[in-house]
Design a protein that fits this description.
Elements: H1 2-37, H2 40-69, H3 71-90, H4 95-109, H5 113-123, H6 126-157, H7 162-165, H8 168-178, H9 194-217, H10 222-244, H11 258-287, H12 293-298, H13 301-321, H14 324-340, H15 350-377, H16 385-405, H17 407-411, H18 417-441
Helix pairs in contact: 1-2, 1-5, 1-6, 1-8, 1-11, 2-3, 2-4, 2-5, 2-9, 2-16, 3-4, 3-5, 3-8, 5-6, 5-16, 6-13, 6-15, 9-10, 9-16, 11-15, 11-16, 11-18, 13-15, 14-15, 14-18
Length: 449
């Protein structure tokens, strides 16, 4: 049984790793993509958000697929699809094709994260489960931060297209390990909410399109008004559909659990901040600071090291002491890290102006991620593990895509030191808001005798 648990954890980490790595690795390659394909900031936003739109909206239905057809089968399908669409991204001849390929890549990546977390919940329980989730968040969160370094090395050596090509290696390894795994039992009576999936995609895609395009054509342009006019009612219809259907892909009843809805509300603020902050930091270092892609990727490495070393520790502590204090203090500490980055000026001195903030941010993030995941998933029944993890991961991705869609409004017409400072303030405010939500709303589960 112990060997099976180690196998489960390895599969869960590797299956999720490619989606987290791909979501983060893209940032450092964006300037090179624009030099090659054109398109400016609009292309950069869409290359990120096309992936996040499909990943975030389809992750909900993917949780239902995992419950209905089995964790192992859906993971295998997701891995094969993610590999194929990664190659399509690598070969994209134009910006439009790359955006389309990124959307398809997000759709296949949506199959991976809910199934991997559901595997952990199916094979682990109690404090052991909290430690396993801590290990999972340490590795996947580390990938989220290490992505810019990996991407930078590839961009500066063999070119940006290889950031997609390397996905084939971890996917092949995961498929080999998956073949050795016993299929865990699946919940009875699970169904697929196809209409809900369509409404979610339109309801998210419409407003995000409007937010990105308005910077170029204005709020009153017919395409912006049309996307808002279709997207907002579609999202409202999605919520109505989830309330009425017998087999919702986002069961609204889960939000009656206090830690579930509070945890997801905190997730919205925290992960919106992370996506916005790291997107702009990576662009600023290259386009204003003059850093090479590899050097820009190295900037966040201290955070990666902290997450790899300490995430399982904080996960275990949260399992014994409860997640509340970690979810309250961690985001606020991370927010202080971004406030310290207000010292950044021109010319940029990384060691004195940015490194202190990166270190403080890294410790705060490490303190936050595993307890947050454990609090949200610990509030749902085991038979709803797939959809519970899907909702939380979807919330984090949707928060990220909306935050990035707002980049143009926050930064202004061009990215400079003043625009960078505005983003740092916004990011810090969102993180501190997430900590405040957790402090007021999260409840520690009763300790077992």
């Amino acid at each position: 049984m112990a060997s099976q648990k180690r196998l489960v954890l390895a599969i869960a980490v590797l299956a999720s790793l490619v989606t987290f790595l791909d979501g983060a690795i893209i940032n450092v390659a964006l300037p090179a993509m624009v030099r090659d394909l054109g398109g400016g900031l609009t292309l950069q936003q869409w290359v990120v958000d096309a992936y996040l739109i499909t990943l975030g909206s389809l992750m909900l239905v993917a949780g239902s697929l995992s419950d209905a057809f089995g964790r192992k089968r859906i993971l295998r399908l997701g891995l094969l699809g993610f590999g194929a669409t990664s190659l399509l991204c690598a070969l994209a001849p134009t910006g439009a094709v790359l955006i389309l390929a990124r959307g398809l890549q997000g759709a296949t990546g949506a199959l991976l994260v809910p199934g991997s977390l559901a595997l952990i919940l199916a094979f682990f329980s109690g404090p052991e489960q909290a430690r396993a989730i801590g290990s999972w968040t340490g590795w996947t969160g580390g990938a989220f931060i290490a992505g810019p370094l990996v991407g930078g090395l590839l961009v500066d050596t063999v070119g940006w297209r290889w950031i997609f090509g390397i996905n084939v290696l971890p996917i092949a390894l995961t498929l080999m390990l998956l073949a050795r795994l016993e299929e865990p039992p699946r919940p009875a009576g699970a169904r697929i909410d196809v209409l809900g999936a369509v409404l979610a995609c339109v309801g998210l895609g419409g407003p995000v399109y409007a937010l990105i395009e308005q910077a170029k054509v204005g709020w009153m342009h017919p395409s912006v008004l049309l996307s808002l006019g279709v997207g907002v009612p579609s999202f409202i219809a999605f919520l109505v559909q989830e309330k009425r259907t017998a087999h919702p892909m986002m069961p609204l009843g889960l939000f009656r659990e206090r830690n579930f809805w509070v945890g997801n509300l905190a997730t919205t603020a925290i992960y919106g901040a992370l996506s916005l902050g790291m997107f702009v930091i990576t662009l600023f270092l290259q386009e204003v600071g003059g850093f090479r892609a590899t050097t820009a990727g190295l900037v966040l490495m201290p955070t990666t090291v902290l997450m790899l070393l300490l995430s399982s520790v904080f996960g275990g502590l949260a399992g014994r002491l409860g997640p509340r204090v970690f979810m309250a203090v961690g985001p606020c500490l991370a927010g202080v890290g971004f406030l310290l980055m207000l010292n950044v000026g021109a010319p940029l001195n990384f060691w004195t102006q940015m490194l202190p903030g990166v270190l403080v941010f890294g410790m705060g993030l490490t303190m936050t991620v595993a307890p947050l995941t454990a609090a949200v998933l610990g509030s749902v029944r085991s038979e709803q593990a797939g959809i519970g993890s899907a909702i939380n991961n979807a919330v984090s991705r949707v928060a990220g895509l909306i935050a990035i869609a707002f980049t143009g409004l926050i930064v202004g017409p061009r990215l400079d030191v003043a625009g960078f400072h505005r983003v740092m303030l916004t990011t810090a405010a969102l993180l501190i808001l997430g900590g405040g939500i957790s402090a007021l709303g999260i409840r520690n589960p009763p300790r077992k005798a």
